[in-house]
Design brief:
The chain is of the alpha/beta class and about 525 residues long. Helix content is about 40%, strand content about 20%. It folds into two domains: about 250 residues, Nitrilase/N-carbamoyl-D-aminoacid amidohydrolase (4-Layer Sandwich), CATH 3.60.110; about 190 residues, 3-Layer(aba) Sandwich (Rossmann fold), CATH 3.40.50.620. A seven-stranded mixed sheet has the order 5-4-3-2-1-14-15, covered by helices on one side. The protein has a six-stranded mixed sheet with strand order 6-7-8-9-12-13, covered by helices on one side. The chain is elongated, with a radius of gyration of 25 Å. The protein starts with a strand and ends in a 27-residue tail after the last helix.
């Protein structure tokens, strides 16, 4: 049977606000799709001309006008291929999240998103008005409907398109990475395709925007809900798919496991944050602990060893084994490094302050802040951005020093629980053994006091991470968490620490979103808070 329709999925890495640059990527992709792949249709992601999410840029009339001008340039600049492009659309009264079908200088159809997500990292109701009409058109005898992202996750839009004759849905998306998001997408799209008896072409962004990481994973499903094609993850690609009389050509699909996908998300999140903000490289304080070792490995994988510099800052409490492990991981990864003791400046602080009733926590925080001052000074000197090395478990309960180890421009492990840190370290070592085994096996310690261990202050991480998963991600109450088998006094302690640490999180550096509830746009709790959980 001859090919009826060839569609190219344009899984692109676009930059928010760079409308001219995004326009050029659209023109280049459309030309390549037509000339190299002989494509009939190319589909771009949601709000592809502006990048996603443009946030309050959408409140600027000049921004919306520039996006409209880019749409007109795209319309005039592509020939002999149908193009589905995402863009904001205004009728002078309301603003819509829209996509348009372009062909040979004309807009053949326009669809306005009907289901506006307003949860998690999404706040589209702040900017857009929901559309209400289906959009179906015919290309080479195939009845095609268009819906946008959230429209697939809710009942209504695809059913209405099918009721108007659509046998194939083209869907631009901006679906952020989470550890199990691919499985969620497949489940939802399978149900939707089966229910409405339509094939689905699902095209997603790839790349990072501030704290959000888009993993790609663009998909094609047939009318029976069978997953037929996948464009892959964390790669920018033009992915051609043949539709033969509404039947989708199938291929073998290899999906990386969750740990591999998560590691790739962290690498891409850092890589794009540095590249899109024109940062020269990264500077990392390496302690000999697992958090800084994993952060260093991710930085090298994201930026290249020549763009990463490590600093060891020992004190009187730093064990020889910590220095040895720090030097080993630095050597294994091949980055430049230096050693600067904090003892002279730390002692000077104590002399200058002349504290009569100094507490252990005061001295510990001074040490951490000494290191922060050194790192920020070197950041100025070298023009590199400081990466913080703390993990989600520590940030959740405030086991970190504001203006100390929290100081930096990007927090790579901000959304990574401690137990997951270990899994990611083992995964990275399976690629090549860079993190010393001793670093993985040692009991975690901040080394700010004699013989200090994290468990002197915190519950064991197996307990802490379980409580945090229940309280943060699942929003369970204290009583519900206790019913899961955790001690009441431990749960109360952890929940209190979470609430008391909100002021620290408000001032934390951004970091890649990988969890269902991360400490970025989808965590908006008040600092002044009398709720007891």
């Amino acid at each position: 049977m001859s090919t009826n329709l060839r569609i190219v999925l344009a899984q692109l890495n676009l930059k928010v606000g760079d409308i001219a640059g995004n326009l050029q990527k659209h023109l280049d992709a459309a030309n390549t799709a037509r000339e190299k792949y002989s494509a009939d249709v190319i589909v771009f992601p949601e709000l592809s001309l502006t990048g996603y999410p443009p946030e309050d840029l959408l409140l600027r009339k000049s921004f919306v006008a520039e996006a409209s001008g880019a749409l007109n340039q795209l319309k005039a600049g592509i020939k002999d291929i149908y193009c589905v492009v995402g863009h904001p659309y205004t009728d002078e009264q309301y603003l819509y999240n829209a996509c348009s079908m372009l062909h040979n200088g004309k807009i053949l159809a326009r669809y306005c998103k009907q289901k506006l997500p307003n949860y998690g990292v999404f706040d589209e109701a702040r900017y857009f008005v929901a559309g209400h009409e289906s959009c179906v058109l015919t290309i080479k005898d195939v009845q095609i409907g268009m819906v946008i992202c959230e429209d697939l996750w809710k009942l209504g839009p695809t059913h209405d398109a099918a009721a108007h004759g659509a046998s194939l849905i083209l869907s631009p998306n901006a679906s952020p990475f989470e550890m199990d998001k691919h499985e969620q997408r497949v489940s939802v799209l399978t149900k939707r395709a089966k229910h409405d008896h339509v094939g689905i072409v699902y095209v997603n962004h790839v790349g990072a925007q501030d704290e959000i990481v888009f993993d790609g994973g663009s998909l094609v499903l047939d009318k029976k809900g069978k997953l037929a094609q996948c464009a892959g993850f964390f790669n920018e690609t033009l992915f051609p798919v043949d539709i033969n009389h509404s039947k989708v050509e199938t291929a073998t699909i290899i999906v990386p496991d969750k740990i591999e996908r998560t590691y790739s998300a962290l690498v891409l999140g850092l890589k794009d944050y540095v590249a899109k903000n024109n940062i020269k490289g990264a500077l990392i304080g390496v302690s000999g602990g697992i958090d800084s070792a994993l952060t260093l490995a991710i930085a090298v994988d994201a930026l290249g060893k020549e763009n990463v510099h490590a600093v060891m800052m020992p004190s009187q409490y730093t064990a020889d084994i910590s220095m040895n492990d720090a030097q080993q991981v630095i050597q294994n990864l091949g980055v430049s490094s230096e050693i600067i003791s904090i003892e002279p400046v730390y002692n000077q602080f104590l002399q200058s302050l002349e504290l009569e009733n100094k507490s252990d926590i005061t001295e510990q925080n001074i040490q951490s802040r000494c290191r922060a001052v050194i790192l920020m000074a070197l950041s100025n000197q070298y023009g590199k951005m400081v990466l913080t090395t703390g993990n989600r478990s520590e940030l959740s309960v405030g086991y970190c020093t504001i203006y100390g180890d929290m100081a930096g421009g990007f927090a790579v492990l901000k959304d990574v629980p401690k137990l997951l840190v270990y899994e990611l370290a083992k995964y990275r070592n399976a690629l090549s053994p860079v993190i010393p085994q001793n670093t993985i096996e040692r009991a975690p310690t901040a080394e700010l006091a004699p013989n200090q261990k994290d468990e002197d202050t915190l519950p064991p991480y197996t307990v802490l991470d379980g409580i945090l998963e229940a309280y943060l991600n699942q929003s369970l109450s204290i009583d519900e968490i206790v019913e899961k088998g955790f001690a009441h006094d431990v749960v109360v302690k952890v929940v209190n620490m979470v609430h008391q640490s909100e002021f620290k999180r408000k001032q934390a550096a951004p970091g890649p979103h990988i969890n269902h509830k991360s400490f970025c746009k989808d965590w908006r709790y008040p600092v002044t808070d009398g709720f007891k959980g």
